[in-house]
Amino acid sequence: MSAIVKVSNLTKTYGDTTAVQDVSFELEENKIYGLLGRNGAGKTTIMHMLTAQQFASSGDIQVFGAAPYENESVLRRICFIKESQKYPATFNVKDVLEVSAMLHPNWDAAYASELTAAFGLPLKRRMQKLSRGMLSAVGVVVGLASRAPLTIFDEPYLGLDAVARSMFYDRLLADYAEHPRTVILSTHLIDEVSKLLEHVLLIDQGRLLLNEDVERLSGMAYSVVGAAARIESFAAGKQVLSRESMGAIASATILGEAGVQERREAAERGLEFTPVSLQQLIVHLTGGKNGEKEAVTR
Fold first, then answer.
1. How far is CA 65 from CA 68, 216, 221, in A?
2. What secondary structure letter does DSSP report for 259?
3. Are 202 and 209 in contact (CB under 8 A)?
4. Measured between alpha carbons, how far is residue 71 from residues 62, 67, 152, 250, 275 in Å?
5. Is-contact 201 183, C-beta < 8 A?
6. How many CB atoms lie within 10 A of CB 168?
7. Are residues 98 and 163 in the same domain?
8. Whole-number CA gyration radius for the chain
9. Residue 246, domain extent
């Protein structure tokens, strides 16, 4: 697949504060990415630079082969749904859909109407009168119906209940299968979206900490549980992401593949292996003190 986004040595500073530092990555066409990280990690700043809403302090951004700034041919191929999207005071739901149809060349009006009904959105109600969940649902409708080649969702489903979020995930997967495009999901609901993602970009304190296909992440770390003394012996010389203990029982989460040798060694010590979910892995990778984290990029 060809890359539709190329980011090289991207840095963004605000005075003495560095929000994004020397970040490089590529996004392939027709793939679903997770842009993950804690609040304030730099995710939204990166998305704002990709969509030409902020200027980079240094580095280079190419989207569809060109710089996105003041480039209508690039920007018309992007749909960016922000967490706190602002609308004109007089706009109602119908107005938002009509303007979106003008902004996005691939807009599917019939699909937008179907989604609007599915989420129970009142077309004539002003945006200012909508609940938090309804505002999120409008963003979901616009993002999906835009069919933009690069569609970015920045926590758009805050306020949606579990049923509505599940409907969004199902609709996204179904429409992506019929109309492939590149999708970026920036979210803290990692366990919920993990089955949607094909590739993960993990940002921590402005740096790219992880850049990996989800299939490879499943074997990137493992946990062992057992007697504390045996855990310490097993973990010696390995890269330990975290340790927990309760009396004589302890556990350790270890970065690395649990190969035949590791499993044999654990069995000899009477230790039990447990899987590490994507969310657990990210919590472990971003939970250490400054200087204890290592980028895992390929």
1. 9, 28, 36
2. -
3. yes
4. 11, 7, 18, 56, 46
5. no
6. 27
7. yes
8. 22
9. 218-297
Q: Are residues 156 and 276 in the same domain?
A: no
Which residue, 198, 215, 232, sits at the end of a domain? 215
Q: Looking at the structure, do residues 191 and 50 belong to the same domain, yes or no? A: yes
Please write the tens of the pLDDT for every residue from 2-13: 899 999 999 999
Q: What is the rounded CA–CA span in Å between residue 286 and residue 130?
A: 35
Q: Which residues, in sequence order, are CB contacts of 187 under 8 Å at separation 6+?
A: 34, 36, 153, 155, 157, 193
Beta partners for residue 127, in sequence order:
none
Question: What's the pLDDT score for residue 83?
Answer: 80
Structure tokens at 159: 């306020």
**Type of residue found at 255:** L
Half-sphere exposure of 197 (CA within 13 A, CB side): 29
> In the chain, how many domains are there?
2
Dihedrals phi, psi of 3, to nearest 5 degrees: -85, 130
- pLDDT given at position 185: 96
Q: Tokens in use for 203?
A: 């940002």
With a threshold of 0.85, does the pTM exceed it? Answer: yes
The stretches in the chain having pLDDT less than 50 are 289-298
DSSP string, 178-247: HS--EEEEE-S-HHHHTTT-SEEEEEETTEEEEEEEHHHHTTSEEEEEEEHHHHHHHHTTSEEEEEEEET
The span from the CA of 296 to the CA of 52, in Å, is 28
Using CA atoms, how far apart are residues 224 and 235, in angstroms rounded to an integer?
A: 9
State whether 205 and 233 are in the same domain.
no
How many other β-carbons are positioned within 10 Å of the β-carbon of residue 111?
A: 17
